[in-house]
Amino acid sequence: MAAPGKVAAFRLPPLPTIGEIIKLFRLKALKQLSQNFLLDLRLTDKIVKQAGELKNAHVCEVGPGPGGITRSILSAGVEQLILIEKDARFIPGLQMLSEAAPGKVRIVHGDILTYKMEKTFPKHLKKNWEDEPPDIHIIGNLPFSVSTPLIIKWLENVSKRDGPFIYGRTQMTLTFQKEVGERLTANPGSNQRSRLSIMAQHLCTVENCFVIPGQAFVPKPEVDVAVVHFTPLVQPKIQQPFELVEKVVQSVFQFRRKYCFRGIEEELRQKKMTGNVLGSTDQPEQTEEENQL
Q1: Nearest Cα to 199, choosing from 139, 140, 157, 254?
Q2: Could you tell me which residues come within 8 angstroms of residue 105 by beta carbon, excluding any fewer than 6 positions away?
Q3: CA–CA separation, 269 vs 84, rounded Å?
Q4: Residues 146, 179: Cα–Cα separation, whole Å
Q5: How confident is the model at residue 9, as a pLDDT?
Q6: In sequence order, what DSSP letters do the residues of 180-197 get, joined into one string?
Q7: Backbone angles phi and psi of 80, in degrees to 5
Q8: How many CB atoms within 10 Å of residue 194?
Q9: pTM here?
Q10: Angle, helix 68-75 to helix 41-49, in steps of 10 degrees
Q11: 10 Å Cβ neighbour count for 235?
């Protein structure tokens, strides 16, 4: 019995293992959807731990699949968990988890790339952008085919402070191919520095938390997997519209380094724009980001 005045920690009742769920519902990872299952709950607990304190938090999990990370999120004591799953085959197993955690789980059968998150969470959770991040988290073991377009979409949402970031500086803990994770977190001057590095780091603090070996997944992917944590910055490092920054950075990385400024010049000429897109032309000193470009 819980001590007087204390709320007992939430615990899931005994449930079939993830492996048993897969057998029970005859689930099979689909290669065309880049699906890989993570069965080791010690690893799912470790992923969820990177999100920070989740007790009484509101969480959106992307692509829960058979529900390994879902169990770890629920065990962390969240207030509410929204599951967004595109593959209808996983819904019955997720419903079993929902029944084991009454009132805590809401299942959405839909595509995260088109799902509107502006009304996903209660209005009272909203915080000013300058405040600490809201008690809202996005967590997901992302299919490789979706991970890059999805993070670009969310970075644009960060820039415009809409989508899941209408509530404030919502934090994200997501998985990527190891190489993509390295690009997202690459420092200036690194060989891994890329379009993703600049687009992510000018808007967020990005941390490569740890790497999961490919053999931990079923089926085993050909690459290892990185767990990456994002916290939006109060002020972006580049004070320009997202579309312009993305277009210029994309153009820059299509040219060899010695021709990179020719790439910028050509892009600005096409757009009939003047000045330095990453800073005013009347400033003689370049920023660290500009020097990398």
Answers
A1: 157
A2: 70, 74, 80, 81, 82, 83, 94, 97, 98
A3: 42
A4: 15
A5: 67
A6: HHHHHHPPTT-TT--HHH
A7: -150, 145
A8: 18
A9: 0.86
A10: 60
A11: 8
**How do 136-140 and 225-232 pair as beta strands?**
unpaired
Higher pLDDT, 267 or 13: 13
Query: How far apart are the C-alpha atoms of 185 and 197, rounded to whole Å?
Result: 6
The Cα–Cα gap between 173 and 52 comes to 9
Is beta strand 105-109 parallel, antiparallel or unpaired with respect to 136-140? unpaired
pLDDT for res 104: 97
Which residue's structure tokens are 């088109």?
Answer: 114
Inter-residue contact 261 to 267 (CB < 8 Å): no
Contact (Cβ atoms closer than 8 angstroms) between residue 60 and residue 164: yes
Residue the block writes with tokens 């769920």: 21
The secondary element (H helix, E strand) that includes residue 160 is: helix 144-160
Beta strands in the chain (DSSP E): 37-38, 58-62, 80-85, 105-109, 136-140, 171-177, 204-212, 217-218, 225-232
pLDDT score of 13 more than 90: no
The rounded radius of gyration (Å) of the Cα atoms in the chain is: 21
What would the two tokens of residue 252 be? 């820059």
Is pLDDT above 60 for 195?
yes
Q: What one-character DSSP code corresponds to residue 210?
A: E
Within 13 A of 168's CA, how many CA atoms are on the CB side?
18
CB 152 within 8 A of CB 184: no
Quick one: which of 166, 149, 146, 179 has its CA closest to 232?
166
CA distance 181 to 227: 7
How many CB atoms neighbour CB 9 within 10 A?
10
Displacement of CA 284 from its chain's centroid (Å): 37
